[in-house]
Amino acid sequence: MAASINSLPNEILEFIFSLLPPYEPLEHCAAVCKRWNLLATNVRARKKSNLQKGLIDFNLCWKEILQESTPRIAARFAHASSLHRNSMYVFGGASSCDTTFNDLWRFDLSRREWIRPISMGTYPSPKAGASLVCHNDLLILFGGWQHAYTPFHMCTLIDELHVYNIAENRWTIHNQAYGPPPMTGHSASVHRNKMILFGGYQKNMENLRTSNDIWVLDLERLVWKKPAVSDLKPAPRYGQFQMAIGEDHILVLGGTGGVNRVFNDAWLLDMQRDTWVWKRVQIKNKKSIVTHNWCYPACNVGSKVIVLGPTSPNDFQIIRPNRVPPMGRTRPNAEQLRNRIGAAPQGPMHAGEPNIPRNNPAPPARANLPPPPPAPMQPTLPGPSQGLSPKESNPSSGPGPSKPPSTVNSGVPVVEARPGPSGLRSPSSTASGPPSRSMPIIRSAFSRQSSEDDHLPKRFNQQNLEQNHMAMVAFSVDSSNHASNASFSHERKLELLRKLEDKISAMRRAKEAEQQQQQQQQQRHGIREVNHADRSINSTGGSPDPVTPKRVKRNGLAIFVCDVSNLLPTGGAEPCIEWQESKNSGLIAGAPDHYTFSTMINGNGELIVFGGLNKNHKSENLCVSNSVHFLTVPTAVV
């Protein structure tokens, strides 16, 4: 008797179905017979429950899809994406070349490939930062910004409303006499046959401002209206996350209100009455909250909200690496620093406060990111810093190169500054002779890092060389010796740099040799470890624990999970959410790089992350991605 696939037991057949993509291939299996339909339904439900359980147990893994076929979508950020059945639709976005797109792409989740629909109708304007939601077979696109085509002009905000009919493959524009102003960075969600907009960065008349207004679009008549809202409202913001809680409630998380105003709060909107009511949500376990919840992707999986973000606030800043101080040079204590000639008084300044003025210009803002994001905090400047060139030194800023004796107007001889507790030597030692060696430059622990870091704020007592000539005369400094000291200091700096480069090269070669040796050992013992793992799995009868490497790249995106199941409590209790504690700071091997302004949607038992913007810390270049990452539960073979 010939055996067929139907001869297999249900457990084996269901395991085979679980290896298929949970989209169109699984739908085809469900259409074969009643038995296969029941098994396919069980597989789809189990994949969703496994993802929710994996978020609780932190049993997750990242997978990246490498695109080798054509057509291929261009790299972009600040785009809009939405899920419709077995496809992810992506519209617009911006590139790193001051351009915005108006193209529509469809990513087939079954075949893992991009498709460019050649649509008809009235195309939307090229823009980024728009909202895109799906309702039945329609995609509703609203708002956004686009780059200005003339120099010295800001970006342009857009208030266009477009509807894309997926079945007819056609765009239509709907201009209304009454509606929201041009905006970007707003959030949107669908409730029954209505789309609810909240917040955003808006243009009212000629003013740009953040908003906390609510607008409602009737998706059947495509008519806007503004509902009545209670007096208690969230602060104006943009870049927040919004999700539907049932049919009559909305949850808003995070956002930003401008420079240095990042919100980590939560608000619940009750839409059951004629006057909609905002309620502030209590947050539990705040130590596990995401630090910057406004420019990173987020989505909901059942009663869980998943946010990708940095592991700590320091990951959001651009911190320059500190230079290695020369050997044999120790850091002076505070008493010795105060005894130096010309040291700045410590009276009005607080202890431990950096010697940086408060009115320094902020570092260069990111390009292509209107509206402007919050300016990053001043970088931490550990000290002491070494190798400051004489061009940036000033006699009033503390100890400097040795100076020949001279006489001021009062006739009192000025002795030469020398190293020591008091910085002086006896007048008898000022006899003429060969020029002495310049004393070492010792900076305070909070001085600027190096002379090459021109983008960092300078000390308030530093001046340019062309501006300190009179200052040098006032302090009786012989400018003829300045050139010799400058050349000597320059040669010494070059010598120190060569020694440092040799040391770094030797350390790099030793590290590479060690890594090669470890790889050879891992390959040699790989088969032995796999066999041992198989034996342990068979003996326990369960799935193996996820293996997380000891060292995971710190520039990857971490996973933050928030439980929102207690937002609608019974018995008159106050609504609350709770952030879950993650393992390994939320980092998992294979996580996407530290990209911002990317999108994440919830598929069938998996999360799909696309695009984003990454700032290169070593240069001013902007790196834009077109990679697709999947966050799912690892498959365990029992």
Task: Describe this structure as you would to a colleague.
The chain is α+β, with helices and mostly antiparallel strands. Among the domains are: 5-57, Monooxygenase (Up-down Bundle), CATH 1.20.1280; 62-318 and 554-632, Kelch-type beta propeller (Neuraminidase). It is 18% helix and 24% strand. The protein is built from 6 helices and 36 strands. Strands 6-12-11-8-7 form a 5-stranded mixed sheet, with no helix packed on it. The protein has a 5-stranded mixed sheet with strand order 20-26-25-22-21, with no helix packed on it. A 5-stranded mixed sheet has the order 27-33-32-29-28, with helices on one face. Helix 1 (10-18) crosses helix 3. The chain starts with 9 loop residues before the first helix and ends in a 6-residue tail after the last strand. InterPro entries: F-box-like_dom_sf (IPR036047), F-box_dom (IPR001810), F-box_only_SRC (IPR052821), Kelch-typ_b-propeller (IPR015915). Residues 343-440, 507-551 are annotated as: Disordered. Residues 383-400, 418-429 have a biased composition (Low complexity).
List the SSEs and their pairings.
Elements: H1 10-18, H2 24-30, H3 34-57, E1 61-65, E2 80-84, E3 87-91, E4 104-108, E5 113-115, E6 120-121, E7 131-135, E8 138-142, E9 145-146, E10 156-157, E11 161-165, E12 170-173, E13 183-184, E14 187-191, E15 194-198, E16 201-204, E17 207-210, E18 214-218, E19 223-225, E20 228-229, E21 241-245, E22 249-253, E23 256-258, E24 261-262, E25 266-270, E26 275-280, E27 282-284, E28 298-301, E29 304-309, H4 334-339, E30 406-407, E31 413-414, H5 469-474, H6 480-540, E32 558-563, E33 576-579, E34 599-602, E35 607-615, E36 622-632
Parallel strand pairs: 6-12, 20-26, 27-33
Antiparallel strand pairs: 1-36, 2-3, 3-4, 4-5, 7-8, 8-11, 9-10, 11-12, 13-16, 14-15, 15-18, 16-17, 18-19, 21-22, 22-25, 23-24, 25-26, 28-29, 29-32, 30-31, 32-33, 34-35, 35-36
Region (Disordered): 343-440, 507-551
Protein name: F-box domain-containing protein
Biased composition (Pro residues): 360-382
